Amino acid sequence: MAYIVSLSDGLLNNLFDDNNIIDFIDRCKIKATTLELGEAEKIILNEDVFCIAMHATLKPESVFESHKKYIDVHIVLDGCEKIELLKFDNSLECFESDIDNDYYLYNSDKKVKNIILEPGKAGVFMFEDVHKTGVKAGCDCSNVVKLVVKIKLNLFEKVFHYE
Predict the structure, then answer these.
(1) Single GO cellular component annotation (predicted)?
(2) Contact 123, 74 (CB under 8 A)
(3) Domains of the chain by range and CATH?
(4) Which of 71, 75, 91, 136 has the fewest CB within 10 Å, making it most exposed?
């Protein structure tokens, strides 16, 4: 089940119990704001946590993806992004996968739930949440500066605030 979490007070303490992760995300935020359009950088905390900081152009369309090793936490720092969400079921057909890089790609014509992520909100996508990211939200935003924090499930269950 996907979670949308408000970060309205600007503090990641609403999301995580672990100060090491909070400090890491704060460092990643600083890095993301220095990236030029089209750049992305993978930043590693440890074997359980890493982040992809990016400054990306939003697209009118994308493909669905899911993950099996890591939970995705999307944090938009600037701009707004539409994320389309499907619940995984056996009728979805994976057309590409990479076990080492933990991604599984799908096409689907099924009805989706649309989520708009903007600064002050984080989207948390679990294993069963097939999601399409980087989609233009219909607002004036054409670019997004964001973090995708990847956390292994065993650690995620210990540090995430389920509200």
Answers:
(1) cytosol
(2) yes
(3) 3-157 (2.60.120.370)
(4) 91
